[in-house]
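Data card: per-record layout.
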Amino acid sequence: MEQKNALTGRYSAVQGSFWMGYCVCISFAAVYLQGLGYTNAQLGVVMAVGNLLGAVLGPELSARIDRSETLTAWRLIWPWLALQAAALLALALHPVMGAVTSAAFALFIAFSISLNSLNLKLFVDCVHSGQAVNYGVARGVGSGCFVLMSTALGAIVKAAGVRVLPWAGLLMVLAQALAHAWLRRGYVPGEKKAEAFSARGRTMAAFLRGEPRFTVLLVGAALIFFGHNTSTNFLINVTRYAGGDTGTMGLLNGFMAAVEIPVMVFFGRLRGGRRSADLMRIAFVFFALKAAAMPLAASVPLLFAVFLLQAPSFALYTAAIVDYVAETVPFEDSAKAQSLAFSMTTLGAVLASLAAGKLYDALPVPAVLWIACGITALGVVLAILGTQRQK
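The structure for this 391-residue chain is written out next.
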């Protein structure tokens, strides 16, 4: 029990620092790039490229780890953090609209979000080696840190301008490095047994062919997160339509994360004897309800009310999907499966960045959100059909 509590605290530090960095690279991406003169369509392309690279890198890294006797998540974490730092340093030293900024910000996004695949692999390894970590608590801490970061950054950017954001990102890279070093000191990974490699993880293509229902679930999740990211990645547009500003957007981001925390922290109690598949279906329905409510929120108070639905949608799904994958996918394929599940949020962001940026330039905000609602509804149907029945 002592070891379990210690690892939960250390893994919580990893989650907390990661989601603070994620707040910089995703939640404030539009604010930063618009501040340098990018249009919605232009910043959408930058975000799409970064998210697409991240969506490819994360599962590919995980697939290689699944199929290797020597390659581990630990060996990749430090190079990934160094690459993030290099991209951020380029942004900090060259805060001007152009090719350098576009490439650096896309790489910042890619190396930031793909790092979560390695974080999830560490969690899977902990569980497999008997060093249990309470993922719900750790992820709840991540949301709590996101609240603090979003609220603080909203106020700081409003007062000091967008050029502080790369420096904030560098500070978060340092925080992640310290958190991983702390976890490394307390984590004793189990050795990869020879018998475990009698049936090594499948290639990505073989895995997807062999798990057709899981593949349908992934497609549905990608469409759901298209709708989700159409509002969250362009939240500054939605906020301004409702009468708010950058400071308001920071508070909204913080509020969204805050309502997630109770669901994540108390997920173990909330789940009880319930099947993770049932909880995921509930989350999918609430994603649809949230998407339908979003275009109706024509004022800041109504936006806050809509984001109360973040708890039974995004928060419930985020906690349940980790358990669902662990319970339905063999361990030898666990890294790629967990990474694919997370990467659907990224793929949704790619689609939203490419399409929604142009839509926001061409259509009123409510019209864009109604389009996102329709796509979300289609995704919910597919995701429910793709979720396996559990005994």
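Known properties of this structure: Residues 199 and 310 are 39 Å apart (CA to CA). The chain is about 80% helix and 0% strand.

See the next section for split statistics.
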